[in-house]
Amino acid sequence: MIEIRQLDGNDIWGQIEGLSAVLVDCVEGGASVNFMSGFSMDDAALFFESVADAVDRAERLAFAAFDGEEVLGTVQVMLRTPPNQPHRGEIAKLLVRRASRGQGVAQQLMEAAEEAAREAGKTLLTLDTASDAAERLYERMGWTRVGVIPNFALLPDGAPCATTFFWKQL
Ligand SMILES: CC(C)(COP(=O)(O)OP(=O)(O)OC[C@H]1O[C@@H](n2cnc3c(N)ncnc32)[C@H](O)[C@@H]1OP(=O)(O)O)[C@@H](O)C(=O)NCCC(=O)NCCS
Questions:
Q1: Ligand 1 pocket check for 65: Cβ under 6 Å
Q2: Where are the domains of the chain?
């Protein structure tokens, strides 16, 4: 049974080990999510501490998928945008641990994130993803693919990878 919960800053601190384990597992699995190979649980905890601060400042929304108290995946919505883009939010760090993929966890996380973004007054969401990673998921969920920038980022092992940009009107 998958349960999606929105997390406040305290919740993130309380779940920091489970959230970090998901992020480390994704990087170890080769996901291009800003971090390079050798990324540790301590590195991941530092990252989620900064997320907790941003959530407390109302600059981000954070969600996690749980099976009981076990964290299966997570996603964030960046709410903080320049003054001329108050209606836009950005999806970041959609991560599902390898053992829990292919069961709709990411789809449920995205549904929760999109709904909360709408409730926060956002009417446009954007995101970028390593090409191939989650493109089918986003297209299935009504996102429009803008295009691909080759060599935009590196995979954890240092190999260059293309990035695809998407948008969705809420
Ligand atoms: C991309 C990612 C988030 C997808 O997570 P996920 O939970 O496996 O996604 P879903 O289960 O919702 O969808 C994945 C597939 O499972 C299928 N699926 C969903 N529920 C299913 C079920 N009950 N039974 C069988 N298949 C199912 C979906 O149809 C989908 O198939 P498709 O992609 O071939 O069309 C995950 O692979 C991941 O964390 N990757 C590393 C990080 C990353 O690249 N993130 C995205 C960019 S930030």
A1: no
A2: 3-122
